Structures are given as structure tokens and as C-alpha cells.
Write the C-alpha cells for this entry.
Amino acid sequence: MTARRQGGWPLEPAFEHALVVLEGEVLVGEQVVRPWALAYLGVGRGELVLSAAERARVLLLGGEPFGEPVLMWWNFVVRSRDELDAAYRQWEEGDPRFGRAPLPAAADPGPEALLAAAGVTGTATGLSVPAGPTASWSGDGRQGH
């Protein structure tokens, strides 16, 4: 988006949508969305209207809603805390189902600095998972204690 602009984009109302701001800040209605935050937009929107005071880049995600409650954390989308714990262990152990996520060579500090600012660490061979959520999860989309 260019600076001081407002724009609207058509959405499929039956789809679930989310927005990630990659650069700048945008307003979704009255809500400010800052870089690397996920703004859940839900189901039923026929249009997404954004405005920005400065230049901004965004990523719009969407698709058919999941048929059951899910927990989304970092790279993982799971149905239970047990699945999250298992996925975490498998990632840390280098399970081949995840493939490799190499970081750029140390000679190019730009992307690594960006990842570090987002709390992600890693080496030239892969990314490390940030510390996991500590709250329990009831499986119906609500966090417990």
C-alpha cells in the first residue's frame, strides 16, 4: 500500500482470513496492525478495507475454515497440546517431515537481523523454535490455566 491511502479488496465470505503486516502499520477498521502481528479477520467478510499513513506491505491469508478448533503457534497448526508438544520435539530433532529451513549466509546480516528481531534464532542449517506457549489448552480455542 502506498502512503496515506485506503483500499478495499474483495474477499470470499465463506473463507476464513488473516492478515500479517510485513512492513509499516495498517488500520483494519479501528484496529492498528503492526509488523509481524497476525490479525485474525474471521469468516463472513466480503471485503477487506485497509488504510495506512505510511507505505505498508501486507500478506493476506485465506481459505476454507478448519472443521474443528485448532491451535496455531509458530510453524505448527495442531488440534491438541499433545500434537503441539510432539511437533515441537520432532522439529527440534530434525524430523524430515519438516524439511530444512536454511538461513542466509552470515555475510548477509539483513534477514538474520530481521529474524532475530522477531525472536527467531538459527544457524546456517536451520531455524530454532521459539519458547513454546506455557498455558494449557482446552482444545476448544480457549486457553486454560
Q: What stands out?
A: The CA atoms of residues 77 and 83 lie 9 Å apart. Residues 81-92 form the longest helix (12 residues).
